[in-house]
Amino acid sequence: MAATKLLTISIALAALSASAVSIGVVFWRRKTRADEEKIRELEKSLKAALQNCGAERQGRIRAQQALRKVASSSDSNNSYPLAPIAITRSCFSMRNGTPRQPLIVPLAKACLVFDPTRVPPASLEGLEGYSHCWIIYVFHLNTNLDKSWKHPSRSKFKAKVKVPRLKGERKGVFATRSPHRPCPIGLTVAKIDTVDGNKVFISGVDLVDGTPVLDIKPYLPYCDSIPGAMVPDWVSADNMLAVTSVNFSHDFCSSLNHCWSRKMEKMKKKEISLYTSPTEFQNLIQQVLSWDIRSLSQRIRPHKTENSSMNNVTLEDDDSEEELHFPDDIVYHLILEGLNISYKIDYDGNVHVEKVDPCIPN
């Protein structure tokens, strides 16, 4: 009797286990089908999204092609949408005195201030790993910029320009670095000192204050430096514009210290200070004036400037072979960091720096 009850219980447990397994299999099949349906829905959604992305990409490509077609049409004057991404804060307040080439004045400093609405600070990450960078900019102080908007037939573009090294001899504009070009775009290289947020501090510059910057690119020695590159003889004669010496008057240091103190007191907190001391600034003056920064006409003929005595000077016609006699008291001016440096240069190319004064606002 006990054996019969035990057998009955075993059969009941076996039946219960079989039912549980059957129920589990049913639920597993239902869950599997539900998962498969979800997978199919997700695959369908992914396919639709990819199709939409492809359509959007094709739309962008067609729009870009249409834009290029319009830009290359004669009606648009072959213009392209370029705008400055940064403005230069330079030690050179005016064109006069700004070096004609980069790196010849190592202490010439500037700061490129990037527009955060166009260039996020993250765009400059990694630039500090390079020693130098190329800078593409606009010759914004050209006096003939209006010609850039005229049709070539009416722009009166000059194919040849006077070369300072050749004392007025003309060369084809594309054989020179003249700023007066059909497209007033300049290319220069500078040493990267520091990168701070949206500011890049550079040195060895030949950029005037306020210069608009279109782009910067890292300098790559392995491909940007060309061993054995050739230049004409008149370019390789580097000493043609070098002066004999630069000398400072006895009172110059005291006047510079006075002007520097006043400049530091008036400087606002947000303004950028490119130089740390009067001594560093005086070294900058010496480096700038180590080259004859006068214009070609000033070197050929004396210009009447402040404190100049022109009574005994006779200006001859350009074709005259008679030698001109230059007075000793012509005073020239160099504007750096808003300070007016007065100097003279004698027959032998010796520069005599006399004084420094604050610039008088216009």
Automatic annotation (TrEMBL):
Presence of keyword Protein biosynthesis? no
Highest taxon above the source species: Eukaryota
What does the UniProt keyword field contain? Answer: S-adenosyl-L-methionine
**Which CDD domains does the entry mention?**
UPF0066
Q: Which Pfam families match?
A: TrmO_N
- The TsaA-like domain covers 82-228
Keyword S-adenosyl-L-methionine among UniProt keywords: yes
Signal peptide range in chain numbering: none
Regarding protein family, the annotation reads: Belongs to the tRNA methyltransferase O family.
Q: This chain belongs to which protein, by name?
A: TsaA-like domain-containing protein
Q: Which organism is it from?
A: Anisodus tanguticus
